[in-house]
Amino acid sequence: MKKQLFSDRFKYFLPLQFLRVILVVGIFLMQLPMNGVYAQTSTITGKVSDALGSLVGVSVKVEGTANGVSSDASGNYNIIAPPDGKLVFTYIGYTTQIVSINDRRSIDVVMIAQSTSLGEVVVVGYGTQKKVSLTGAVSDIRGEELTRRPVSSIQQALQGQMPGLTILDQGGSPGNSNTTMRIRGITTLSSNNPLVIVDGIEQPLANINPDDIESISVLKDASSTAIYGSRAANGVILITSKRAKEGKGSVTYNAFYAEQNSVSKPEHMEIESYLRLQNLNYINAGAPAKYTEQQIQDYVNGNREQFPLPFDWYNVMLRTAPQVNHSLAVSGGSENFKGRLSLRYQDQDGTIANTNSKINEIRVNTDLKVSNKINVAGDVNYRYVNSVQPQNITEIFRLMMQNSIFTVPKYSDGSYGAGPQGNNPLLLAEGGGTDRSKNDYITGNIKGDWKII
Fold it and tell me: What is the rounded distance in angstroms from the CA atom of residue 179 to the CA atom of residue 404?
């Protein structure tokens, strides 16, 4: 019995001692290289510049370590580094440089500006051009930059993304957005909306799934929009959708969940200020004051069951509205045939009760190589939108601003309170009926290229 007890104790004692030995040896080994490094370091100084002069804020880092500094206002820097190490110089818009120290105490570096962006292809009216050869005013953005924002429409994704393009989102119920686009401001007395071309076909910008966009180009001046004639007087927005690439098939799934809240609710005055201004209103109209001083103090300091605070109709009516978006794309093909299929489902509630929009969408892009000189492409896009909103939406927002603040929105038994004129915006939103719309949108195109020469 004693022998068994000793065996159990030894079984747990041995791993504990073993771990202690490993810990002590590990700490000892870690100290060795560190002491060696710091015993052989020196201070390196220098200056960072480019073709135009000194550069401020260039990152200078010892390769393989977290030791780093930035160049000062004169481009100078100093850093502690080992004599056999390397310095890494990085700066936005410039090519990263790695310089070996080789026992030097002073190292000056001239940074070289990156020119890779000039080789990027931009979609223009006559096809595609490289950035370096553009002569007109053109801005472009890639589709990956748009999908980083969890928004319901492409207009919202473009806000603040492209110079010269102004997008004003005035809100609106889901499925009926109220967005204004302007390229370089207002230019005519009539419509100032730009021309939107998607894969060579004019389409509303709101009908495009952001996950299907490969690139967007904005043509701003006469030289870049000339091919479209007078219809391009307010600028042109060119959208190229994603297409399959030759090689292995790929499956892409994007989804997000978001919550929407109103950010422009007006602030109401305090109850005491409101009651005193009501008295002033009655007195100016030649009538006696509506509230006595005692009644005002009762509302300010009294029992809330007997003297309830007024209702803020914006807080009563506006709610947190969830939004869900799912997008699935399958693409692939060979040299002779390539295809891409994308599916989208979006369910978006509005901040007012009984407001909702559901979108079901499918897009198919195909490319067929008939011969070495003939290529054919066929695209189809189908979109179904089911939207609902309260029947008296305009009246609801009017009552939110003008209804009595002492009207009870809804009692605990489910009945609605009635104001001086019998109107209650919550009653109209929840029980005043709804307007429902179901829209089908379909577009398709077939195009071919023939290389004659």
Answer: 32
